[in-house]
Design goal:
It is a single chain. The protein has 102 residues and is mainly alpha-helical. 80% of the residues lie in helices and 0% in strands. It contains 4 helices and no strands. The protein has helices spanning 9-27, 31-49, 53-81, 86-100. The chain is globular. The N and C termini lie far apart (37 Å).
């Protein structure tokens, strides 16, 4: 397996849960939990990759996709409640990008 699309659905579901774990720790301002979750993800992906760098890279790309799915789903859920338009959501995303470009 070197392509992210070859990932078993159960593995992707675990990646989504791991991403939710990081987000939950960030919401709680628990930097130690964030660090531990990141370490667990890297360790798990490394173990499952069995030393194959291409597989590791593909699995980490899929992990990023899982985190993006969590963020997108959360935004889609919260935006209507905040009466935000798609344009306003895009402005917020641009503000986030600008904040981390410093």
């Amino acid at each position: 397996m070197t392509e992210p699309r070859d990932l078993p659905p159960a593995d992707f579901a675990e990646m989504v849960r791991a991403s939710i774990g990081i987000l939950t720790a960030k919401i709680a301002h628990d930097d130690d939990a964030v660090h531990m979750q990141l370490q667990a993800i890297i360790r798990e992906q490394g173990d499952l990759s069995q030393g194959d760098v291409g597989v590791f890279a593909a699995r980490m790309a899929k992990q990023v996709e899982a985190a993006t799915l969590v963020a997108w789903t959360l935004l889609k859920s919260l935006a209507p409640r905040a009466e935000m338009t798609e344009e306003e959501m895009n402005r917020v995303l641009a503000q986030i990008a600008a904040e981390y470009e410093r």
